[in-house]
Design a protein that fits this description.
About 30% of the residues lie in helices and about 15% in strands. It is α+β, with helices and mostly antiparallel strands. The protein has 2 domains: about 55 residues, no CATH class; about 50 residues, 2-Layer Sandwich (Dna Ligase, domain 1). A 3-stranded mixed beta sheet has the order 4-3-5, with no helix packed on it. Strands 1-2 form a two-stranded antiparallel sheet. The longest helix is centred in the first third of the chain and has 13 residues. The N terminus is likely disordered.
Length: about 140
């Protein structure tokens, strides 16, 4: 009995996952593609994109689609928030351990059984606070 192709760990998928983890940020598919090409020169952007979504379906990575107009990828799958700089677009992790639950949650979630923390916050990163960078268009 053969395994489902989406479940098989191909060399391409393994390299994509390794490169995503090594970047240590929240890159776009294009950034990951450029990193992967050093190891797999014949890989296409479409192949990288498809494999990123397979890895997300398998729960090995997360797709961050709600953080602005860009689709970003996160190698961390544990519950945590993201903070997005409204000036430069930089994304950083906010560990859920730094947020006391349920005391820090607003009243509008009362009555819910909270099962995790996902999503994002918006702010201005330390670098942008120290410069006069204009907000992104």
């Amino acid at each position: 009995m053969s395994s489902h192709p989406a479940r098989r760990r191909t060399r391409q998928r393994q390299v994509i996952l390794e490169e995503l983890r090594s970047l240590g940020c929240h890159p776009t598919a294009l950034t990951i593609y450029n990193a992967v090409r050093d190891r797999l020169p014949r890989v296409s952007l479409g192949t990288v994109y498809r494999n990123l979504h397979v890895l997300a379906e398998q729960g090995e990575i997360r797709v961050l689609e709600s953080l602005g107009e860009r689709t970003l990828f996160d190698h961390r799958t544990d519950d945590h928030l993201h903070v997005v700089c409204e000036r430069c677009g930089k994304v950083a992790d906010v560990d859920s351990g730094t947020i006391s639950m349920p005391e820090a949650l607003p009243d509008f979630v009362s009555g819910y059984e909270i099962t995790g923390i996902r999503g994002g916050l918006v702010g201005i990163c330390p670098e942008c606070q120290n410069t006069s960078v204009s907000p992104r268009p």
